[in-house]
Each structure stands twice: as structure tokens, then as C-alpha cells.
Amino acid sequence: MSMLSFKAPNLERILEWQEFQTCQEWFENNLVLIKGTPPGYFNTDVRPHAERIFKEIDKINVNMITLMTSSQTSKTTIGVGAILKYIETDRYDSMIMFPRESELPKMYDNKVKIMIDGCEKIKKKIQVSQEDAKKKTRAFGLNIDGVLLNILATNQTKSISPKFGYFDEVVEYLVGKLEEALERFKSHDGTGEKVFVTSTQHPTKDGRDVINDCFNISEVKLQYQAKCPKCKELFYPEPETLGYPTIDQWELESGESLDGIADGMKLYKILSDYRPWAGKRAYIQCPHCKHQMNNKERRKQILDRQFEWVEVEPLSSNEYGVITSWKKVEKPKEQYRSIAFDVNTLCIESYDIGNIVEQMIKAEYSHNKIIDMQVLYVGQFNRIYRTNIKKTETADILMLTNKLPWGIVPEDTAKLYFIVDTQKDHYWYMVLAVKYGKLFNVVAHGKVYEDKRLKEMMFESYPTEDGKKRYIDRATIDMRGYQRQEKTDEDGEVVETKVNTTERIKEFIIQTNIEARQNGFIKNDEHFLWGTMGQPQIKISEKELKEAQKRGETPTGEMAILKTIENKENPDYTYKVLYISNLAAKTELFEAIGNNIENFKNEAEEKNPTTVSNLYFINEDMKQEGLKRKNPRQEDFEQMMTAEIYDFDVVNGKPKEYKSFIPIRKRNDQLDNSATGVALASIDNIAIFPHKQEVSISGYEMFKYLKSKQSENKKN
Fold it and tell me: 394-487+505-534+562-685 sits in which CATH class?
């Protein structure tokens, strides 16, 4: 009788006795955080929110765990650490997936290798060099004592069948790739398989993204809620619950005043003096009893386990299905296979809410407020920042006077722009003065038919309030569209020809810049006139960003990017094009208009202004002209400025995923010109105060203020 023999290379390992450890015990006994906050062995005493997550990981019936959290809430540590734990204790092949193949080495170093280096049990069992592995740009595997840990991107899942998986930042995955990857776990259905889906929310979508959907479809949804030390009621710390004293309160307590000082100086004092003062007095306000929980009290509540995981369900949603509020589940579920967690940095002990408040104030007065707020909301609050853009009425536009006559450049102007929108047989122009703090002032505007006259106006001087001459700092012209001409042939039939407007405007830009250099208006290597190209949104790759920075250009995220179209044969024919995100620029424009409308309404009610930055003005003559009109036309300024509304566009009966600016009237030329001005101010960083003090009065006043502060410090 013959005996069958077989090889079982993992038999010894399978039969090896292992003392059972819970996930929390394994973390606390085996995982050292090399760069953690605080560093050292993982400790739930300073991360109490992790305890409930560990308990759910231990449940064999729970096979999908979603961590929809802000940054720095230990989601990567928990997810990757859990995979390492399962490899060490359960010994099944596993996978870790990142969004992009090109970033695998970087992600491996920052999120996997650092964890392995902090876990001696795993590190000593690796049979494939980590140094060799991290050099690979495609998917690779680590052999950990016979168990394979696959490190891969979203397009590399077809040949594997893991039991445990970690999916990182799933909002960045290509459409359908998460669902495709999850199919690889079906062969283990019901045998203790487990996947971890993690991400912050996406900053550009209007409420729906992959991580949001994963949270919503989970059988159990949990929020980490604070218990008010006064009324003992629970609530989820949202951005709306984060509070701090107003500028008025700072003025009253400090004895400082913002009245009568230049705008640049006003903003400097807000950011240098008011911002840290407000940060030290930050608090979370209970929505039930209005108790203000300061940072010290909040930290004590967290460490004393007075924050609790609460099961919630949707309370309300908008017309497009986006959940807007939640309520507590009265009878929590006992049996479930999927669970999701929602937590932000307001619930994390190591964070100082005062620093978050300082970031909020800085973003509020940033040259790129919309984008900076989006980053802040996602990173700190695990929420998407949404602007509240209301429909603007024509009467509101006429309210926004700076009380200056037509054609006068305001005092303390940082940049004077000449902006042109191109049409079939004419141009719409705008002379826009921008003061530090993004204060936009319309100096003049109108319609021009001839190229010659348009060019002349670009080089003309414009009087300032004190009677001096001010010249245009930069001009732009729209390069979009076509111009049509109709001709008849010998038989009298109409023949239609197209004249490419982009090529025509390109020649106009090149020739204008040549003349500007010849006349000494600009230096030989400068460009006075830029082309502009409006587009719905701008997404810049890291490669494009680096290339632009090498050329000395200033891309500004989703607002605008400046590109140089080079001509090496003839450098004079090199020109620049500013690509503008209509969504980002018009969002900030409408916010500036809305800010100033509210300021003027507050002024009428004898209240203090809401904000001192990001405001939009027209001159007094424009106001009076508008008030005299009995039959407004689409070409009137206030009509153009209210020609679009911010809403979900409907295509084939279905609303689009993103809100956008939808036209309600044909003529929007001056609205487009104003949005271009916003993009230019962003490129030129006209936000806080002058970088060159000789440029304006506010710079001089800032200098005097700093000198006085130095004197005070010496006395003290």
C-alpha cells in the first residue's frame, strides 16, 4: 500500500499555538507609533474614540467598517494596523489599496512601512526586503512569514483574493473601482472576512461622494458625540457649534479700534492681533443649553470618556437626496454586518480648538477663501464647506456705491486692471481697481467696437482721488469663441465662413505687448496683456503644479492657472493665458457682492459691518444712472451682474451633481469681467496687506504700527 505525500509549507505556522488577543490588546502591546501624537505604544487613554472601533473589528459577523473621518483621527493607523494584526494572528493574505499607481512608493513609506517599523512582530517576519518593495511603482507584495500583503492601486485587483483589505481615501478612486475591488472578497463570504473603507469627504462635490455613500448605506451609523458638562445632553460638534468672540468684542476689551485706518492696515491688525486673541477664547457651544465648553473643559470631557458613540439615522435631506441632518436611533440594532463611524478633530484630545479658530479666521480673509475653507472643513470638521450664495437683485447692485465719481481710482489701490470680454463685432471692457483685502471697485466700463480704440484705452492714465495719474497694471482679453461672416457666391447662394476669434485675439495680444515694450511701458521680458480662457472648473495635476512653479508662475488651486505659450523662434510672439475656473471665481465674486449688500443693510440699521474684506463696489455715477432707468435693458450693468444664478443645472430632466452658475439672461459680459478681476486678485495675492510698503498708504501705516509696537515692547 502506497502512501500519498503532500507538502504543507504553512502547517507548522497554522498549528502554532497563539494566545487570543483583542484588537485593542494587540495594538497596545505590539504597535509603536513612531510619529504619532503622542508617540509611543498605541494608547486608547488618549484616543478613547478608538475603543468602540476595536470592539467592532473583533466581531466576526461585522465584515465592512467605514471610517468617514477628518484627518489626524487615527483612521489610517487603525485600518493599516488592523490588517497587520490579522496577518500576524489569523495568517490570511491581505491587501492595502491606494488611489493612484504613481503614488504607491510614497504611500507605502508614509502609511505602511512606518507602521511595520513600529511593529517588531511583523518586521522580523518579512521575507521580502522593504527597501526593494518600496522602489516599485506598480503593485507589489510583502511576504510576511508566508502570508502575502498586497500593496496596490485601484487598477490592480484582478488576480488576488484576499480575506482582509484596507481601502485608503476612497473618494479619490475612479468611478466603480471600489465596488470592483470589493468583489475580490466574495470567495470568503461569511468566514470572517473584513474590509476597512476610509476617507475624508470630497471638497468639490455638493454632498455626495463614495465615502458618504458608504456611510449612508451601512446598517449601523455612529457619530462621536460630546456630552455637555452642564445639561448632560449629547450633541455632535459641528462647525456651527464652534464659537469665538467677535471683532467688536476684541475692540471693546483691547481698546483697539479699526475705524479710520487704511484697509490694508485694518486687515493686518485683524490677523496679527484679533486672530490669536479670539483663538485663546474659542469654545464649543452646546446647542441645548448654550453652555460654552472651552478647550480645557473639552479635553477633560474626552479623557473622562464623556464623548460617546451614538447610533444615528437620517432626519432630513435636500431635494437631491443629500442628508442634511441626523437624529439618535432610539433602539440600536443588535445584528448587522456593516458599520460606519463619523468623527472629526473637535472630538480629538490632542487638538487645540483655538488653533482651528485661528485657521478659520485666516481662511476667512484669505486671497482664496473658498478653497482654503474647503481644505479646512474637510481636514478639521469632516464636512464639505458650502457657500451660501443668494440670488442677487438688480436693486442690490445699485446699493454698492463707493461714493466716488466715474473714472476715479480709489485711494490705496493695489492693482488697476483693464479687463475685456470679446464678442462678435465688439468688446465689453471694465476698469477695475482692487485694494488690499480684495476690495473690488468698478472705475469705468462700457462697449468698444474698434481694436485701435481698445488698445489706446489700455495705455491711458486714470486720475486718483488726490489728482495723480494712475496707469493700468495689467490688461486681459477673452480669447474664446468664433466670429462669423456671410458671403454669397456667383449663383447668389449664401456661403458661410468662420473667422477664428482665438487666433485673431492672439495676434492682438502679441502686437499689444510688442508695442508696450517698444514704448517702455513694460520691460522686455514682461507681458502687459494676457489672454483669458474661462472654463467650468480647473483641476491641476502635481506635475502641472511643479512645472508652473519652475517657470515662476503662480497657480492658485481651483481658481486660476497662468500658462506661458512659448515661441522659441521669436520670443516676442510668446504670450500668456490665464485659465479661469468660472465656478471658483464667480463663487467668490458673488460672496463679495453678498458681503457688501449685508454691510450696506447693516449700515442702514446702524449696525457694524459684517466683514471688512472681499467686498464689491460700483461708483456713484453708476448708481445714479441705474436709478434713473425706467426700462432696464440686458446691456445695463446691474442687469449683466445679475444674469446668472447659482443652482443645480438640469440636463435631460436630471439635476447635475455639482452646482454651477446658470444664465437667466443673455448678456453677462460684465459679470464675466468681474470674475476675471477676482482671478487676477488671486494670482496677485491681494489679500492682507501690501508687500511693498511704498505702494500705498496702508503700507506706511502698517510700518508706523509695527514701530509703535516695538516701542511699547521696549517700555514694558
Answer: alpha beta
